[in-house]
Amino acid sequence: MTSEETPTTADVTGPRPRRLTYAAVLAALEGVALVAGAGLMLVLGLTGDPDDRGQAVTGGITLLVIALLPLLAARGLLARRSWSRGPAIFTQIMALPVAYTLLQADSMAIPAGAVLAVVAVTSLVLLLSPETRDALGIRGPGRAQR
Structure pTM? Predict the structure, then answer.
């Protein structure tokens, strides 16, 4: 296949569909939440009295790196890059088990789990819609190029 047969970007002449914008905003919010969690872990790990300072710092750095995926996906969705839908969908699928785990807790984590579950399912619906697929220039199997 040549690059002419597989376009990497969609036609950006028209307005961006609302579903695509909403999906990008939700992905960006997840990324910002992960950055905030990473910052909190790092600050508490460095200034507080954790059981294992190295583990707290490593956890914070890991969350910071993980936050890059939804942030990059959100940027790509806003720019209408076809590659961005895959990382965005992956992020939502990975958020579902985390939400389930939070919902099983007997603590203040239950509301966070409910919010995360709603955001993940809503994002998946937005990302898998035909309107989003067409806006990103993604062709399904057997679909001819326009």
Answer: 0.82
Long-range contacts of 34-43 (CB under 8 A, 24+ apart): 34/63, 34/64, 34/66, 34/67, 34/70, 35/63, 35/64, 35/67, 35/71, 37/63, 38/62, 38/63, 38/64, 38/67, 39/64
Q: What is the pLDDT of residues 55-64, one digit of tens each?
A: 888 999 999 9
User: Pick from 107, 100, 137, 143: which is nearest to 121 by CA?
Assistant: 100
- At 91, phi and psi to the nearest 5? -60, -40
Q: Which residues of 40-69 are buried (b: 16+ CB within 10 A; e: fewer)?
A: ebbeebeeeeeeeeeebbebbeebbebbeb
pLDDT tens sequence across 64-108: 999 999 999 999 999 999 999 999 999 999 999 999 999 999 888
